[in-house]
Amino acid sequence: MRWANAIPTPTEQLEIKRQAIIREAAQVFNRRGSHGTTLDEVAERLAVTKTALYRYVKNKNHLLYLCHKEAMDIAAQNMDIGEAEGQTGLEKIQIGMKGYLREMVGTMGVPVIILEEKALTGDEAKKIIAIRDTFETRMRKLVNEGVKDGSIVPINSKLAIFAMLGAVHWVTKWYSPSGVWTPEEVSDAMIELVTRGFAASPSKQLTADIHLAPMPQSTKHNN
Amino acid sequence: MRWANAIPTPTEQLEIKRQAIIREAAQVFNRRGSHGTTLDEVAERLAVTKTALYRYVKNKNHLLYLCHKEAMDIAAQNMDIGEAEGQTGLEKIQIGMKGYLREMVGTMGVPVIILEEKALTGDEAKKIIAIRDTFETRMRKLVNEGVKDGSIVPINSKLAIFAMLGAVHWVTKWYSPSGVWTPEEVSDAMIELVTRGFAASPSKQLTADIHLAPMPQSTKHNN
DNA sequence: TAAAATAGTGAACATTGAGTAACTTAAAAT
DNA sequence: ATTTTAAGTTACTCAATGTTCACTATTTTA
Fold this sequence. Notes:
- The structure is a homodimer.
- Chain A contains 9 helices and no strands.
- By secondary structure, chain A is an all-alpha fold.
- Chain A starts with 9 loop residues before the first helix and ends in an 11-residue tail after the last helix.
- In chain A, 45% of the residues are buried.
- Chain A binds a DNA duplex through α3.
């Protein structure tokens, strides 16, 4: 093969570009909301015209679907890791969610989760909702597992995961990649904090770097 | 006075109607996002036409502003109560936020907080951001007060309040007034859970009704 | 009762933004 | 070199929706 396969094939290039579109679109969707996002803006960030996007995605709804799907996939992958590496229900959740949050605010660049009702339509909406429900069921099982193994206090699993997911998803609203906190620091500190809420034996002190640091942080959001 | 003032004056009626518009609009804004919300839908819920709304609000942006303002006012009022009744920083936060969340999902009917960047524009955006920053500063002071008085573990106050506000605001995404949980139950359980994350002496068990209940809850959202 | 203010309607207007069609250039294959 | 395919652009259509205007009905006031 020419160049020892260092050059992506046309098919690979297509996929690379599609990923770039998803990454940029996710950020705009997240900041402006799905209806507030124009394909013109997404295209502009990629330095192409709106119509060029249609070579890679079927339409706006499909693009929104791909963004959600990407986030769900990242979540699932990290929960796989959590389940493999964690010993207790609590640890599995902590490891999985730390990885998920880190990728959300880091690699993927603060993307979307906010589900505006009816923003996604048709079959694509059904698929995403199905995936999301599966994910939430999985999380709830881990909570219940933690209650059984004694790592988590008796708690309503629905409330527990919604509290955690709320705090986690909210991060994408205020986190700024140009700020002083790295994705790693934020996710460590945030997950330590939220899971302490239902840990059976909460630590006396918080140990994540951010909590130990002395300085005051601005309260400013990104807007 | 006729009817012993039982009949609202024209000026009062105007304000009553404006409140009704805000209440309905807030729910739609919250579910559909600001850009996804049409004035037609808001009007339809009130059984009037779109144009009628313009007698009560300047334009869509102004209506969005009023919704945010309403939420901020409710938050501030409840924090006043929290500061008056709570003994420690932790208690002040717990009392205040419980009241806020209860009103959000109850009386006001699950309204908006989601700030889509640029959804609000101009002076109105500036005002809301200023109010929000004031609120967050207030919350952070209470966290620091709690750390000083020993009710809260040493913690980064920004992270603490954003975790809490994330969990709290997320409730408006999944709470259904037609479900089995009352606003009271949800807010008690949620605030107990999230504040336990930074309490200096976390309880061994959760005491809110929802956590004690045995049955499994559906994971279904409202969409 | 007549006049004036209030509350609301329906039609029209202007703008925005998703999606399409025809054309242009660049790259690849034969 | 010529043809074919890929990638992208410009110019357009069309639907949705915020906003305004002119008009009607209703209520209040004088």
